[in-house]
Amino acid sequence: MSNIDQKYNALTAEEQRVILNKGTERPFTGTLLDENAKGIYTCKQCDQPLYTSESKFDAMCGWPSFDDEIEGAVERVPDADGRRTEIVCSNCKGHLGHVFEGENFTEKNTRHCVNSVSMNFKAI
């Protein structure tokens, strides 16, 4: 089944604002910010696995942060502002957030700054 034929999950108005219209949730308000259980973070719109709990870290920025994605799950796209790099789900192209490099938070030197409303969490 191609992306065009795929049925996506129903989204709330806030999820649509962020995922479809490239919005941002307010910092320190996301339900997944303080999630520390072992598990998988999946795309809210299409359920594709995006991140593992092992790659999550506290960047103290107000949004869930990850230093690595599941291989092939996330695409990097130049942001419309010309300064940042947007990250989207590689399957449905839903907006996740932005990726930053060179901040030295982790050994991988990468921070995926992701909106909680763009993801679901599945404990394992």
Question: What's the layout of helices and strands?
Answer:
Elements: H1 13-19, E1 39-43, E2 49-52, E3 56-57, E4 65-66, E5 74-78, E6 85-89, E7 95-101, E8 110-114, E9 119-123
Domain MsrB: 4-124
Catalytic activity: L-methionyl-[protein] + [thioredoxin]-disulfide + H2O = L-methionyl-(R)-S-oxide-[protein] + [thioredoxin]-dithiol
Cofactor: Zn(2+)
Report what the structure shows.
With 124 residues, this protein is mainly beta. The chain has one domain (13-123): Beta Complex (Metal Binding Protein, Guanine Nucleotide Exchange Factor, Chain A). 6% of the residues lie in helices and 32% in strands. The chain is built from one helix and nine strands. The chain has one helix spanning 13-19, and strands at residues 39-43, 49-52, 56-57, 65-66, 74-78, 85-89, 95-101, 110-114, 119-123. The strands form two sheets. It has a six-stranded antiparallel sheet, with no helix packed on it.
Features:
124 residues; mainly beta; Metal Binding Protein, Guanine Nucleotide Exchange Factor, Chain A; six-stranded antiparallel β-sheet; three-stranded antiparallel β-sheet; 1 helix; 9 strands; globular
CATH top level is Mainly Beta
Mind telling me which CATH architecture this is? Beta Complex
DSSP, total strands: 9
How does the helix and strand content classify structurally? mainly beta
Q: What fraction, in percent, of the residue positions are helical?
A: under 10%
Task: Give me the CATH fold name.
Answer: Metal Binding Protein, Guanine Nucleotide Exchange Factor, Chain A
Reading the helices and strands in chain order gives HEEEEEEEEE
Instruction: Note poorly predicted spans.
Output: none
Write down the overall mean pLDDT: 95
Number of helices: 1
